[in-house]
Amino acid sequence: MSTVTRTRLTAEERQEQLIVAAVTAFSQNGYAGTTTDQVARLAGVSQPYVIRLFRTKQELFLAGVQHAGDRIEATWREAADRSPTLESLGEAYGELLAQPELITMLLHGFAAAGDPAIGDPVRACFGRLYEVVRELTGATAAEARDFFAVGMLLTCLGAMRVLGPDAVPPQPWSADLLGTFEGLDKKL
């Protein structure tokens, strides 16, 4: 008879596990379409436990947005350590596009920003990323605007599965548009 031993997670590890599950659930169904019960099932915990840690679905959602923003910032900082240029940060963001749940989580955050309780933290997250890009690269406001404009286009294309690991077969418009990106990693 074999005995299965379970490793008990720390409170911090359990919270991180719930946030990762929340990112997955919210990226699939959006803020309105996701329940804390769905997140609990993905994480393998009870729904009351989720509420005990995060109090509300809104707080859990915002933790997911913050997680996505933190991951992007960390990726950009690592890229800037190698080469503090917009090109380097753009290449690093291209690698993040291979994680559609992360970028789709941000899109759902932007979409839910009409709710004042969600909007302020989402705008703060975006503003922080904008400031990080300028700080790391020395980009002007116009250069940062263009960087984010292209990034948002790629984010939308990734969320629509036009590019990324789960990309649908290209249509003429998408092949034409993607062909305008010099050096876009074709493995996306």
Automatic annotation (TrEMBL):
Domain HTH tetR-type: 12-72
UniProt keyword annotations, A-Z: DNA-binding
DNA-binding interval(s): 35-54
Pfam families, alphabetized: TetR_N
PANTHER family to which the protein is assigned, alphabetical: HTH-TYPE TRANSCRIPTIONAL DUAL REGULATOR CECR, HTH-TYPE TRANSCRIPTIONAL REGULATOR RUTR
Protein's name according to its UniProt entry: TetR/AcrR family transcriptional regulator
